[in-house]
Design a protein that fits this description.
By secondary structure, the protein is an alpha+beta fold. It has 3 domains: 230 residues, Heat Shock Protein 90 (2-Layer Sandwich), CATH 3.30.565.10; 69 residues, Helicase, Ruva Protein, domain 3, CATH 1.10.8; 32 residues, no CATH class. The strands form 2 sheets. Strands 1, 2, 3, 4, 5, 6, 7, 8 and 9 form a 9-stranded mixed β-sheet that branches. It has a two-stranded antiparallel ribbon with strand order 10-11. The chain is globular and about 70 Å long. 35% of the residues are buried.
Length: 367
């Protein structure tokens, strides 16, 4: 029995438990695939300071089989990063940042690609371009689920470079690459088993809601029946960029506090609290240490489990200001109304934005 024990990679686990990622039925699989690709495109554009323009194309290619193509006008992706972003689960840049973003774990788009490969056997196709003067890069990849690594299937395992001139257009036509000519951007194409259905919980409804919630975005949508729908932006200004903050003490559990104490580079307990958490001043750090009966100049690496427990209790009892809410950027009442008027026909419109609030040290806002 012991001889049968072995490690299980994260991609191997999720390949057998795709329902945990939103692929529990064919209709939801289509919606999740579009959403994950849209989230990536919107986040990339906004972080680069580019007004987003997204193309969504869904084509019926067989019985319960669809090809989804999503392209953005973002900054593009560096060549060496493309296979990892689309062919490796839990690979991303947002997981350790405490700020608002659509995606965080680095699972979504790679999981969508994995689902497509498992249901159709077709690889994920990606073309990305960072500048009109530089070549684009085209990859056909799939995830090796046992090792959680990307396998590049074209260009002898290295992908294909598309020249930036007229030769590039010939290469695109030669390889049958789907691409709307842009100076920069990324397009991902995934073929998967799915079900297209209009109405509640559909791709159509999701794109409508995305247009309402993001009035600065232009969306070009072609549905499986060939209907072309456009949601033009009604604002030419990007929302403010959310700021990254440190974790708030109220939201840190005991186990995480112990790990942070062991990993910190700060020489004293007082400096650990000041530099590792938001809203902790020297006086707050001193009150926490005093309440826990631990010296402010104690070495964080030498704090014992019992002392860490006392520190955690002291944190919960201490009066600490609420975390800054600028890591959350609301849409705003005016922007919501503009989005509603563009998408939803009606005679009366109303929107409300509540003040920021905090739950377990995490800021949130309801609109």
């Amino acid at each position: 029995m012991a001889a049968g024990q072995r490690d299980i990679s994260v991609s191997e686990f999720f390949a057998k438990n795709r329902h945990l990622l939103g692929f529990d039925n064919p209709r939801k699989a289509l919606l999740t695939t579009v959403k994950e690709a849209m989230d990536n495109g919107l986040d990339a554009c906004e972080e680069a300071g580019i007004l987003p323009e997204i193309w969504v194309h869904i084509e019926r290619v067989g019985q319960d089989r669809y090809k989804v193509g999503v392209q953005d006008n973002g900054p593009g992706i560096l060549r060496k990063q493309i296979p990892l972003i689309f062919g490796k689960l839990l690979y991303g840049s947002k997981f350790h940042r405490l700020r608002m973003s659509r995606g965080q774990q680095g699972i979504g788009i790679s999981a969508a690609g994995m689902h497509g490969v498992l249901t159709t056997g077709k690889p994920v196709k990606i073309i990305s371009k960072v500048s009109r003067r530089k070549p684009a890069h085209y990859y056909e990849i799939q995830i090796n689920t046992k090792l959680n690594v990307p396998e590049i299937l074209n260009g002898r395992g290295a992908g294909i470079e598309i020249p930036p001139n007229h030769l590039g257009q010939k290469a695109i036509e030669k390889h049958g690459i789907e691409w709307i000519e842009q100076d920069h951007g990324t397009r991902v194409t995934i073929e998967l088993e799915a079900k297209y259905q209009r109405g509640r919980g559909s791709v159509d409804e999701y794109l409508e809601q995305t247009a309402i919630a993001n009035p600065h975005v232009t969306i070009h949508y072609t549905d499986p029946d060939g209907n072309e729908i456009e949601y033009n932006r009604v604002m030419d200004q990007l929302p403010p960029e959310p700021k990254e903050i440190k974790p708030h003490p109220y939201g840190v559990e005991l186990g995480r506090l112990v790990s942070m104490l062991q990993q910190t580079e700060q020489p004293t307990l007082s400096k650990f609290f000041i530099h590792s958490f938001s809203r902790v001043s020297s006086s707050v750090a001193r009150r926490i240490c005093t309440a826990a009966k631990v010296g402010t100049r104690s070495n964080p690496h030498r704090i014992k489990r019992q002392e860490a427990d006392l520190l955690h209790q002291a944190i919960q009892a201490a009066k600490i200001p609420a975390p800054a809410s600028d890591c959350v950027v609301p849409i705003g009442e005016e922007s919501i109304l503009k989005g509603l008027r563009q998408v939803v026909p009606g005679e009366f419109y109303a929107a409300a934005t509540r003040p920021p609030a905090v739950y377990r040290g995490n800021p949130f806002q309801i609109e």
